[in-house]
Amino acid sequence: MLKRLLLNRYTLIILTLSIIVFSAQRCKKTIDRLHNNIELLTNNNHAFSKELLSLQDSLLTERGVFRLTVGEINASRDEIIQELNETRRELGIKSNQLQQMTYFVSTFRTDTIINLTYIINQDCEFDLRIEYNPQTIFNISSSLSELDSLELTHSAHISASYQIFISDMRQ
């Protein structure tokens, strides 16, 4: 009887330990899965935040979109609309064929400042403007600063404009 009671006690202990080990392994798998989900959600949240900031930046720099009838386009005194309308006529697109016209301007501007402390000539101040065309302008200048250093400044202003016409050319 004592032997049987001890055997039941060992069986109960082994069974309890087995259940604890099994539960611990199952909890570890669940914790690992949840940890992976948290990493995924954190990464996605970071990516969506960047996307939202990018969208907000693009909305801040977004220009207005005008919806005009062909009559309003032909009567407009706006320089850009007149230029688009003139280009449309040069391309041979009739008013009744025009579905959409778009004007897009892209601008790139960069500034660089270099300070030189070793100066060979004290009288080397200059200011140059190089204009290849109205859309490509470079400014280069130098000046003596208060700290006895030469400051070279270079700036580039490059822009491009695009005109897009969508028309219905059915005959």
Order of helices and strands: HHHEEEE
Distance between the termini: 107 Å
* Strand coverage percent: 25-35%
Mean pLDDT: 76
Q: Which outline best applies?
A: flat
Estimated radius of gyration: 36 Å
How many domain regions? 2
Protein structure class: alpha+beta
User: What is the spatial order of strands in the main beta sheet?
Assistant: 1-4-3-2
The tally of beta strands, per DSSP, is: 4
Q: Tally the helices: what do you get? A: 3
Write the layout of secondary structure elements.
Blueprint: H1 2-61, H2 70-75, H3 79-90, E1 98-116, E2 126-133, E3 136-144, E4 150-167
Antiparallel strand pairs: 1-4, 2-3, 3-4
Protein architecture, described:
- The protein contains 3 helices and 4 strands.
- The chain has 171 residues and is α+β, with helices and mostly antiparallel strands.
- The protein has 2 domains: 1-62; 70-167, no CATH class.
- It has a 4-stranded antiparallel sheet, with helices on one face.
- The longest helix has 60 residues, at 2-61.
- It is flat and about 110 Å long.
- The termini are far apart.
- The mean pLDDT is 76.
